[in-house]
Amino acid sequence: MSLFDLSGRVAIVTGGNGGIGLGMAKGLAAAGAAVVVAARNREKSERAVGELSALGVLSSFMPLDVADPQSCRAMVAEAAERFGRLDILVNNAGMSIRKPPESYAVEEWQRVLDTNLTGALVCCQAAYPHMQRQGGGKIINIGSMMAIFGAAYAAAYSASKGAIVQLTKSLATAWAKDNVQVNAVLPGWIDTELTRDARHQVPGLNERILNRTPAGRWGMPDDLAGVAVFLSGPASDFVTGATIPVDGGFSAEF
C-alpha cells in the first residue's frame, strides 16, 4: 500500500473550479482519486472537470450553493450515490467582504459566515454518515492566515476562518472513533482571483506580503496539491485535529 495512493477514492472539493480548490483537486486526481467539483459556476466548473479528466480519473461537476444547507446536503448525497462512496471532503468554498468592521451590515456579516463556516459544517454533517458506514474518511477544512492574524478590512472573514480551526478540532475529536480524520489547512498568500482583488483594493498589500514571506514570492494554487494528498491518504491516518500552514514561512517570520 502506497502512503500517497488515492486510487479508488472519491473526493468532493467545494469551490474546486479555480484557485486553491482546483490546485488541491489536481493533486488528488494525480494521486488517483475521482473528483467531484462542487461549485456555482457551471462553465468554469466544466473547464476544471476537463483538466481533471485529462489526468486520467473520473471527474464530475455538481452544482452547489454552499450558503444553502439544502444544496449542501443534496450535493453530498448525489456525489455518494453517483460514485458509490465518499472518502474525502475538502471544504474550500469561501468569500470575503472587505470593509471596516464598523461598516458591516448584519446581512453582510451573516453572508460571509454562512458561506465560509456554516456551509462547511453542513457539508461535514452530510458526509459523515457515508464515511462512518464505510469505515473511515478524510475531511480537509480550508482556513486562512486570517485565523492567526488580524486585518482591519476582514473582520467577518477572519472570524469565520478562526472558527473553522476550532470546528476542525471539535469534529476531529468527535469522529476519531469512526476513523474519520479532520484537519485544517491555512493557506498563506496564494495568487488567486480572491487575492488579486485584495491587491487592487488594499494599497501596498503586494509589497508587504513579499517582504514578510521568507520564500520571497506569492504561493500558487499548485503549492496546495501536496498537503491535500497527504491529508487525504494513508500517510495521515494518525493525524487529526491539526492545523497546517502552507504559507512560504509567512506565519514563522517575526
Descriptive report:
- Helix content is 44%, strand content 15%.
- Helix 1 packs across helix 8 and helix 4 runs parallel beside helix 5.
- It contains eight helices and seven strands.
- The termini are far apart.
Main attributes?
single chain; 254 residues; Rossmann fold; 7-stranded parallel sheet; 15% strand
Largest sheet: 7 strands, parallel
What does the average pLDDT come to?
96
- CATH fold-level name: Rossmann fold
Name of the top-level CATH class: Alpha Beta
How many helix segments?
8
Alpha carbon gap, first and last residue: 41 Å
Estimate percent helicity.
40-55%
Q: Tell me the β content.
A: 5-15%
Count of discrete domains: 1
Strands in their spatial order, largest beta sheet: 3-2-1-4-5-6-7
CA radius of gyration is 17 Å
Low-confidence stretches: none
Concise synopsis of the structure shown:
With 254 residues, the protein is α/β, with parallel strands linked by helices.
Task: Walk me through the topology.
Layout: E1 10-14, H1 19-30, E2 34-39, H2 42-53, E3 59-63, H3 69-83, E4 88-91, H4 106-133, E5 137-142, H5 155-175, E6 180-187, H6 193-201, H7 205-212, H8 225-232, E7 243-246
Parallel strand pairs: 1-2, 1-4, 2-3, 4-5, 5-6, 6-7
Helix pairs in contact: 1-2, 1-8, 3-4, 4-5
